[in-house]
Each structure stands twice: as C-alpha cells, then as structure tokens.
Amino acid sequence: MSSFRHAGIQFIRAILILWGAFTVTFFLLQMMPGDAVMVRFMDPELGLSPDQIEAMRVLYSGSSSPVLQYCHTILRMLHGDFGYSVQLGVPVRTLIAAALPVTLRLAVVGFILSLVWTLLIATGASLLPARPLRQAFQAIPGFWSAIPLYWSGIFIIQILSFKLRLLPVVGVGPWEGIILPALAVSLPIAAPQAKLLLQQIEETERLPFVMAIRTKGASQESVFFRHILPNSVTPCLTMAGLSFGELIAGAIVTETIFGLNGLGRLTRDAVSGQDVAVLQAVVMIGATGFVAANLAVDLLIPLINPSLRSSAAWKEKSGS
Amino acid sequence: MNTQHPVLDISHLGISYDGKPAVENISLQTFPGRTMALIGESGSGKSTIAKAIIQLLPPSARLTHGTITLNGISLTDATPRGLNTIRGRQIGFIPQDPSSSLDPRLPVGRQIEEVLRLHTSQSRAERRGHVLHLLEHVGFSEPERRFSQFPHELSGGMKQRVLIAIAVALAPALLIADEPTSALDVTIQSQILDLLDRLREESGSSVLMITHDLAVARDRAHDMIVLQHGRIAEQNTTRSLFESPRSSYTRKLLADSPAFHSRPATPARFVSGMRPAIQVKDLTVAYGSQTAVSHLSFDVQPGTTHGIIGESGSGKTTLLRCLMGLISPQSGSVHVNGKDIFSETSAERRQRLRNMQLVYQNPWSSLDPRLTIRRIIEEPLRNYFPEGQAWRQTRLHELLERVHLPLHLLERYPSEISGGQCQRVALARALAAQPDILVLDEFVSALDVTVQARILELLSELQKELDLTFVFVSHDLAVVRQIADTLSIIRYGKQEEYGDAEQIFRKPASPYTQTLLQTIPGQKQNGNQPQKFLGS
User: Fold this and answer.
1) Which of A28, B101, B139, B466 is deepest in the core (most CB within 10 A)?
2) Which candidate from B80, B102, B153 shows the least CB-CB separation from A313?
3) What is the spatial distance between Cα A42 and Cα A78, in angstroms, rounded to a whole number?
4) Alpha carbons B481 and B469: distance in angstroms, whole number
C-alpha cells in the first residue's frame, strides 16, 4: 500500500517539475529581445509595413498579454497542440512528429548499448581469470570518458563505413542508419556508468555478506551475478536515468555529425530563427524525457533494493 | 584421551600477510560433538585461522607452513572447485556480524535455500520444505512468514538464527563460529549459544568457536586454545585451563576479565546532603508518537559514577543526548550542578558544555584523522584558555602524563596508534577543558579485555585524583559492575531499576534485571561440561 503512495508522490512530483519547466521556458522565451515574426518578416525585400507585421504577430500569438498567452499556451499544450512554427508556417506537431522518432530511436538504441557496455566492462573487470586482463577492463571507463563525442563519431564513420565498408552512412533505412550514431553516443554514456558500477562492485565485495556467501560454497561467478552485481547497480541506475534524459535533450552533436533530422536539428534551426513555439515544444519534450526516465528509475529502485521498499515493514519487526 | 578420529586436524600451520607472519606453528584437532574455543585478543590471529580453514584468506595472505585436513581430506591442497563442494557441505561457517552477513536484497528463506541449491539435487518444492523445517529448527515460530521476510525486517538475533540455519542446513562435520554473539545483546547472546549447543548435540558436529570472550568460552567449550601474537599460549580442557592456568598470558587474561570478579570493595561514596552533580527528574522524550525515554529519574553525586545499562533500542542514546542538552524533552528536567539545562543562557550553556565533556565509543572515528595527537589535544586548550604557547606545551605534557601516554606519540595520527591509546587521547582531550563531569558512551566496548582493564583502572585513578563525576553508559554489565557506584537499568525507555550498584547486582528487584544478570556469561559452575539448554 505504501509503495502505491510512494509511486503517487513521485508521479505528482514529476508533473510539478514539468509544469515548472514549462513556466520557466515560457517566460524566458518571452523576455528574449525580438521575436520570430521580426526575424522572418522584417526582411525589406518582403516590403511589409509595420502595421502588417503587427497583424502577423497577432495572428501567430493570439493575444497580447503574456499572462493570457501563458494560460492559452498551456491549455493548448494539454490538448497536444503546440502551435505553429513561424519559420516554416506548419504546425509544430508535424515537425515534432517527424523529428521525435529519429531522436527516440537514437536515444533508446544508444542507451541500451551503453548498458550492455557497462555490464560487459563490469563482468570482465571482475571475473576474467588473469589479473592484467581485469585491470585492462577496469581502465576502459577512464579511457572512454576522455574521448569527445564529435571525435568518436567521426572516427566510427571513418573506420566502420569508409575503411571497412560495413555500414553506409547515407541512404539507409531508419534502423540501420541509427546503428553508427547509437554506437558513438553509447561510449561516452557508458563510461561514467561503468566507472560508478566498478566502484560500487568494489565496495560491495568488501561487505561481510559476500564472504558469508562464499562460505556456503558458491562459485565466483555465482557470487558475482546473484549477489554482488544486484547489490551494486542502484547508483548506476540513477545515473542511467539522467543519461537517458540527456540523450533526448542533447542530441545536437550526434545528429549533426551523422546528418540525422531529429530533435537536435530541429532545436538548432528553431534557435537560429527564434521560433518560440518550436523551442517551447522541444524544451517540453526534453524535460519529459528527463522526468520520465527519473520516474522510471525511482520506481525501479525499490524493486531492486527491498530495504527501500516500505517503512511499514519496520513496524512488523518483533523480538527474537 | 580421545580415541575417535579428529574432524579437523591442523598441523604446524603458519600464515603470513605480505611476508609478515600472522600465525605460526598452530596445531590443533577437533572431535565430533565437542566444542573447541579459540581465544585471543584482536591481532592474535584467531580470525586468520578460521579463514584459513575455509580457505578464504585475502590475497595478501600466504600459507607458509603446515597442513589443514578435514576428515582426512587436505584443504590446503584442494582445488577451488573442490573447495566449493566442501564449503557449506562439510564446513558450516557462522559469521561474526549478523547485521551485515546476509544479502540485503533477498528474502532470508531464499538465502538458506541457496546452500541447498548449491549442494543437493532437491527440487524447488523439496528445498522450500527443507528451509521451512530449518527455520523452525532454529527457533522461528512462523517459518512461512519468515521465509519471505528480508534481512532488514529481522532483529540481530533473528538474523543470527538465519545464519545458523544456513551453516547447519546440511549437517556439516565441522561448524566454525567466528565470534557468533559478540554483536548481540546479552540476553540474545545466551539464546543463540544455547541454540548452538543444542544443534551440536543433535548432529554430533564438531564446533570450533572463535571468541575474544573468556566467559563465553568457559560456559560453552570443552577444550580451549589461548592464542597470543599468532602462537598458542596454552591449550587444555576448559576446566583445567580455568582451574590451573599454566601460561602467564592466560593468567593475565583471567585477571583482566571483568566477568570473573566483582568490583574491589570500596567504601560507599555517598555523601548525603550534597547537591547532586546531575539531577534528572521525570524525563520523557518522544519522537513523534514514539516514546524513546519515559519518566526517567536519577541523581549523580559529585565524585561518583552512575552506570546506565541498556540493550540496543533501550533509549540510552536518546537519554545521553538529552543529558547533554542536545535535544529537549517533552517533560521533566535535567539539572547540572543545580542549574536547569533547558532554561540556560548561551553563555551558561557554553560554560556547562565545558564542565561536562562527552567521550564517545569508537576509538578511531571520534578523533579527526587528519590531525596529529598534539593538535587534537591542543584544540580545547586553545578554545578555552587565553594563555600562550609555552603554557599550552606544559599543560599538554601534564595531560599526557595523566593518561599515561608517552610523549613521542604527539606527532602521530590517530590511525597510527592503538585503540587503547586512542581512548587515552580522547580522555586527555576531554580533560583539557578541566571538566567536573565526564559522560562516557560505551567507552571501553570496542577494546580487548586487557586494554579494557587498563582503561578502567585509569578512569578510577582520574576520578580519585581530579574528583570527577562519571556517567558511564554501557551494554556490558560486567564492566559497569566494576566501575559504577549507582546504577540505572533501562529497557524500552523505562527505568527498570535504579539505586546502589552492588545492591542491584546482589538483589535485583525487577524480573528483567534478574534475566539480564543470569545471562551474563561466565557464571556457570561446570566449565568442562557445558549445560544443556532446550528452550530458546
């Protein structure tokens, strides 16, 4: 019962965070000098008079009072309507619908790959038979986190596409096209996760219960997979939640290198054109990504760590 | 004298850590149905021997000499795979600290089941039945419910029962119990030891009990080995060892163990009519709806020691915090030297905290690891006294002399000195402020008996010379008996007993105190034949 309560509280908190993100971005975008209407229609070649521009402005933003606009926008958003892009003159929803799947695919595949790397590194560093091999695996996270994303991206294209010709970069389907960029993003995300997991494993290994399990006659592998690893993943999950949000909100570099038309590209264009409605929508999607990932982690952690499950259990404790 | 074959046979064992010998020339044999106690203080090598038997020494350890065989099979020559079939199957291991020896993520039933899964071909349902039976066997009344409970839902004593169930699940020939009860309250301690005795009798296992507690060993073991600096100082049957100890080290251990003698008779130091140094009246503290301390009252006369005894969860810590004025009570009062501490001005508070010093339990963690001993003791001197460097230097030397510490320790760091020395530094630091009252929280609990005895001597000496008042909080009755003039026994936040200490120890009034006193180990008369206890 109390775990439902916990979930409820987490959910309400997530909604509040989203509302806060919306409010802050809305007023920040309002405060920006100039607006998209100016950027697009001030061009002398179009020959529009100030009155006509003002009429355009009314057309795009509805009403003039910021508070009324705020209420209007939030209501529209709740209905899934993000307004119109001033730059392109199409509904923002259409733009998002085209860009989001690309970014989401990249994020999900990159994220899963990063988890795979993390587990492989942790397993190798703990279970490989020779000490030098284990040490080599332990060194991987430090090495990977030193490589910037734009460099590893270009490197991966060079090697896998141009030299080895394993995968083309252009003219591929939506899923094949995602493999290389996902590989590139997964490395810098896996590095800190793996580092954290290795540290945590080292700490868990020192706990008395691990020795107690060895005295039962469990093998090295069995102790690692059944006891050490599950007891070490919690902090790593928290970090993974943050990285997933990052993947959705910060895809600009990867999308630029690999020429993908995702949210990153959309954000870049919207910023240069001061396209407020698009920016607002992009920020909300990014925020939703962060919040959803963290909500998922918060709900997942009690499943892995029973002592965090409920405080009610403490009261059942009775003398022996 | 024993015609049976030994279960465990260790011969001329030598182990070193990074080239430094930890144990040398250890030979011992254990027999079915008998308990052998391995006694030693910290650093004596007793845990090293236990880990060597089960072949789980840390990588820095090296076997330099000797062999270990179990029922004729050499453990020192066994392969890792071979060892995994012996651990848990033929050797059961009961670890030291029940609170951290179970996987916090798994229900306890599953953790008992694991040992069956590893060593038998039982089906899932059979394993479950076996585990439920084991849970019942170690004294759980609702095995079904316990099966699916997590470690954090069980008390320390219950966790130790679970660990015992794991160790005895497959009726191993040898049971190694590594300080099985040192982390438990005294009433729970005797229940667990009774359980171990019962299981040993039923299964005929041979038990190797590793302990620092002579009193526990005397009650429970047939044979004893006393270890000192990694060598055997004495080996004998328990009865002979206690009746006529041959080695000087054993005699010293016996003399220093508080359980074997009561306080040297001192005249009662009650001076009636004097204003009490501390007066606690009807004190009640609650956290939310939970009452931690309820209606506690006691007086402490100047120059005397008031002992506060309580098991874990009794409200000792809350009481201490309240006594220092760190938390406010719901009702009741605390007067120190006649002043109400909850209505004092901040200047008065500063003065009181200087007169009343709190000294903590853990020797190492209560001293700042980044400061030298000199800086640690100098800090209160700087804070409280305006005098210059030369004065501080003299005072520093005086303080060190008071607590019998050599001057050359001044430039060391806390991690470089022993636990007993740390406690002396903590005392010197507390005395630097020239207090009249010391509040000592489990002050000697983490120390070995010989060190403990020296620190207790030092405390009495300081009390006499400086006319100090002590509040001495401990879970250890034998220690408190040595030092306390008056006594409060608390349980679940309520005062079970209050009065003259010797009086309470001789004629306890409350049933709880009686149980508490009966469960102090070391009182059973028949050392050679541990008594049979069927209840638990």
Assistant:
1) B101
2) B153
3) 32
4) 16
Task: Return the SS3 of A75.
Answer: helix
Q: Are B119 and B89 in contact (CB under 8 A)?
A: yes
User: CA–CA separation, B338 vs B41, rounded Å?
Assistant: 44
Q: Which amino acid is at A52?
A: Q
- Chain B partners within 8 Å of A207 (Cβ): 100
Among candidates A216, A231, A306 on the partner chain, residue whose Cβ is nearest the Cβ of B166 = A216
**Alpha helices in B232-303, H assignment, sequence order:** 238-243, 248-256
Handedness of CA A56, A61, A64, A66 (dihedral sign): negative
Query: B91, B99, B152, B162: best mutation site toward chain A, by most A Cβ within 10 Å?
Result: B152
In contact, B510 and B496? CB cutoff 8 Å: yes
Task: Give me the residue label for tokens 């992009």.
Answer: A282
Residue B535 has pLDDT above 50, yes or no: no
Q: Is the dihedral of CA B42, B46, B49, B54 positive or negative?
A: negative
Helix (H) or strand (E) holding B27: strand B20-30
DSSP bridge pairs for B285: B293
Chain A contact for B268 (CB, 8 A cutoff): no
Element (H, E) at B24: strand B20-30
Phi, psi for residue B278 in degrees, rounded to 5:
-130, 135
Residues 6+ apart with CB under 8 A from B521: B186, B189, B190, B193, B213, B215, B216, B218, B219, B259
**ipTM of the prediction:** 0.74
Residue B495 Rama label (left phi>0; alpha psi -120 to 50; beta): beta
Amino acid at the residue B39 = I
Helical segments of B99-224, H only: 108-119, 124-137, 143-147, 156-168, 186-203, 214-220
With an 8 Å Cβ cutoff, is A227 touching chain B?
yes
A313–B152: do the CB atoms touch at under 8 Å? yes
Residue A318: the pLDDT is 34
Contact check, Cβ <8 Å, B118/A222: yes
pLDDT of residue B11: 94
- Torsion angle of the four alpha carbons A258, A262, A267, A269, in this order, in degrees rounded to the nearest 10: 70
The predicted structure's pLDDT at residue B271 = 52
Tokens for B180, please give them.
């099985």
A303's enclosing H/E stretch is: helix A276-304
B210 SS3 class: strand
Of B56, B80, B104, the CB nearest to A211: B56
Helix, strand, coil percent values for chain B (each to nearest 5): 40, 25, 35
CB contact under 8 A, B152 and A227: no
pLDDT tens for A109-167 read 999 999 999 999 999 999 998 889 999 999 999 888 888 877 888 888 888 888 887 77
Residue B334 has a CB neighbour count (10 Å cut-off) of: 21
Angstrom distances, CA of residue A130 to CA of A21, A57, B450, B500 = 50, 70, 45, 65
Q: For an interface test with B, give the residue of A215, A221, A226, A231 to mutate (most B CBs within 10 A).
A: A215
Q: Per-residue pLDDT for B167 more than 50?
A: yes
Say whether B89 and A219 touch across the interface (CB within 8 A). no
Q: For the sheet containing B290-300, what is the strand order?
A: B290-300, B278-287, B331-336, B339-340
Q: Specify the pLDDT at position B228.
A: 92
Segment (H or E) for A299: helix A276-304
Q: Which residues pair with B74 in a beta bridge?
A: B69
DSSP helix/strand/coil, A305: coil
Measure the CA–CA gap between B363 and B369, rounded to whole angstroms.
Answer: 11
Beta bridge partners of B291: B286
- Give the Å distances, CA to CA, from B260 to A67, B213, B237, B257: 82, 11, 18, 6
Q: What digits encode the pLDDT tens for the residues A212-226? A: 999 999 999 999 999
